[in-house]
Amino acid sequence: MARTSTRPRTRLPRLPVSSVTSTAADLARQLAPGPGVVGSIVDRREMPLPRGTWAIFGAAFVGFAMPVIGFVEMAERVRSGAKLPFDKPVMLWLQRHHSPRNTTIMRAVTELGGVTAVPLVALTAAGYLATVRRSRRPAALLTVSLVGSTIINSVLKIMYRRARPTFFTHIVNEKSYSFPSGHAMASAALAGCACVLAWPTPWRGRVIAASAVYVPSIGVTRMYLGVHFPSDVLAGWCVSLAWVGEVASIMWLMDRLDRSPRPMIRRRSHVVPVGEETRES
């Protein structure tokens, strides 16, 4: 026969509705957006975003989505082992233009997008902007974009492990994987930063024109030298365009928040609970 417990049940005290409400309000304050850019974006009632923010974000999303889609399409073919139809014809066409003079030019030009020239130019420009011009955000844009593109390139090479093309003998020796092209990514990231920094200045047209020559030239040299497929170069451009575009958008927002006539970054004041003042006094 089952025993019945004779222990009296303890009833939990009912909390008043006002106490529950105040507890929920305190919890909501703790979970509210903190100080900083993210908090300013989420809590817009007292701190409206600068004019044009959503238009910039929309353009940044389109500029991010299209290159990412292009990269994903090529990356899926590379992962599955499928051959892209334009890789071989382009490289064989370039091979027909091999000559000692062209090879000398291509070897010299390709160094302008290499691991020495691009970091040297970026660090020099970043140091000049930070120390002489007192412009920390442009310097941060250059540093984050170039360092980030290098890290992303290394990770993607390990992920896809694509072998170098073998359509003809390589003119230069490369030991790493092929997809995506590191020279293409570095040159595109550097040119993208230059275009962003020159956009509000009278140098905009000349910088864009120079970038339109510089970036394709580096890509052509990599294919001419036999060390990259055309799809490697296109993939590198896509990744750098998306990366620099997103970094530049974040930097733009932070700059506008700082220049706003109203304080855009809220510093949360310490709220003293009721009764604390009387206890302290």
The value of Rg in angstroms is 28 Å
**How far is the first residue's CA from the last residue's CA?**
64 Å
Compute the number of helices. 11
Strand content: under 5%
Quick structural summary:
By secondary structure, this protein is mainly α. It has helices spanning 17-31, 37-42, 53-80, 87-95, 100-110, 117-131, 136-160, 182-198, 204-224, 230-259, 276-280.
3D architecture notes:
The protein is an all-alpha fold and 281 residues long. 65% of the residues lie in helices and 0% in strands. It has helices spanning 17-31, 37-42, 53-80, 87-95, 100-110, 117-131, 136-160, 182-198, 204-224, 230-259, 276-280. α5 packs across α9 (204-224) and α8 packs parallel to α10 (230-259). The relative contact order is 0.15.
Topology:
Layout: H1 17-31, H2 37-42, H3 53-80, H4 87-95, H5 100-110, H6 117-131, H7 136-160, H8 182-198, H9 204-224, H10 230-259, H11 276-280
